[in-house]
Structure formats: C-alpha cells, structure tokens
Amino acid sequence: MIPAILASLFGFAFVTTVTPGPNNLMLMASGANFGFRRTMPHILGIAGGVSLMALLVGLGLMALIEAVPALNAVLKVVSVLYLLWLAFRIATAAPIEDRSAKARPMSLLQAAAFQWVNPKAWAMCLSAITIYAPDRSLLSVAIVAGAFAVVSLPAISLWAWLGTIIRQWLSSPKRLRVFNISMAALLVASMYPLLA
Questions:
Q1: How many CB atoms lie within 10 A of CB 159?
Q2: Burial class (CB in 10 A: 0-12, 13-18, 19+), 100
Q3: Domain positions in the chain
Q4: Which residue from 12, 39, 87, 133 could staple onto 140, CB 3.0 to 4.6 Å apart?
Q5: How far are the Cα atoms of 112, 115, 149 from residue 143, in angstroms, in the given order?
C-alpha cells in the first residue's frame, strides 16, 4: 500500500474505534465499575478480536455473507438480543460495595468473542476490507487487520480511562446506578444503525 492509503487506513481505524459504540460504552462502564487495571483484559480482547475479525472477514467471511444474504439477518437478530442482554446486565449492576467477589469485568476471550455479535465491529471490518483491501489478498487484508491492532489499543483505552476518572464521582450508589442505567440506555441506542 502506498503511504497516502496507509495514512487513510490508520485514520479510518482510529476514527471507527475511538467513536462511541458498544465496545467503548462497555469499556467506560467497566473502567468506572472495576478500574483500569482490571479492565485491561477487556481492552486487549477487543483489540485482538477486531483484528482477527478483519483478517477472517477479508479472507473469506465477506464472500460467504455475500453468497448467503440470510446470514446477515441472523447476525442482526443475534446481535440485538445479545446487546439487550448486556444492557440489562449493566443497568442492574450492583453498587461497588455490594458486589460479590464473583463480579468481574469481561475477560480477554469474552471481549474477543463479543466482536462477532457487535454490529459496529462488523461494519468497521466489512467497510475496511471493501475500501482498503478490495482484492482481498493476504497482504492487504493483513495490513488492514494490523492497522486495527495498532490503532485500537490507545483509542479504546481512552474510554476505560475516562471511566476511571469518573469512578470517584460514582462512589455514591445513587450516582453509580444513574451512570449504569445511562450506559445501558446508550448501548441500546447504539443499535439504532443496525435496526434502521
């Protein structure tokens, strides 16, 4: 890829990963509820999951979705149901001091697996492959996946960090409840492009 196209790809990866969406809203909630250090596996899982998704989309999944359009409808239904379940879990999270020792943020594998039902991740990967790897060669697809790996880590870490910044303010159970319900509502609202 020529330098101008690479700069454009990195800009695309940054903008799509730093803007609000299911991953970033959940990272902010996790940072606020569990702190940055405990949210790191979630951050790494997103970065790895999106990169792997971009690679697999470019190496064949995109062709499969184009060949079997019904898969797109199934993906939408599963995504909506899973996001609604996550929104419910966030909205009903117990205050920090009331949580059992079992309460924990998403693990690396859970966050990586979440990308497969995340409508924004699908849109990002399908768009990136269409624009920056239209030939779907291994090299161009690997460059797209690599761009997401490099750029997404600092971009999404910002959201977890923002959650930790407001953590002190959320020490009040009432404010934490309002925050968690707000994050859940925003997560549901993030489905609008999928449903529109």
A1: 24
A2: exposed
A3: 20-195
A4: 133
A5: 19, 19, 10
Torsions phi, psi for 112 (to 5 deg): -65, -45
Q: How far apart are CA 189 and CA 141, in angstroms?
A: 31
Quick check: 101 and 34 in contact, CB under 8 A? no
195 close to 77: Cβ distance less than 8 angstroms:
no
Residue labelled with tokens 């849109």: 123
Confidence of residue 88 (pLDDT cuts 50, 70, 90): confident
User: The pTM is what?
Assistant: 0.81
* pLDDT given for residue 56 in this prediction: 95
Task: Give me the count of residues in the chain.
Answer: 196
Quick check: 90 and 180 in contact, CB under 8 A? yes
Our CA angle for 6, 9, 13, nearest 5°, is: 140
Tens of pLDDT along 62-72?
A: 778 778 888 87
Q: Residue 81 corresponds to which tokens in the numbers above?
A: 């149901």
Alpha-helical regions (H) of 35-107: 36-56, 62-67, 70-91
DSSP notation for 125-146: HHHHHHHH-TT--HHHHHHHHH
26: phi > 0 → left, psi -120 to 50 → alpha, else beta; which? Answer: alpha
Measure the CA–CA gap between 80 and 99, rounded to whole angstroms: 27
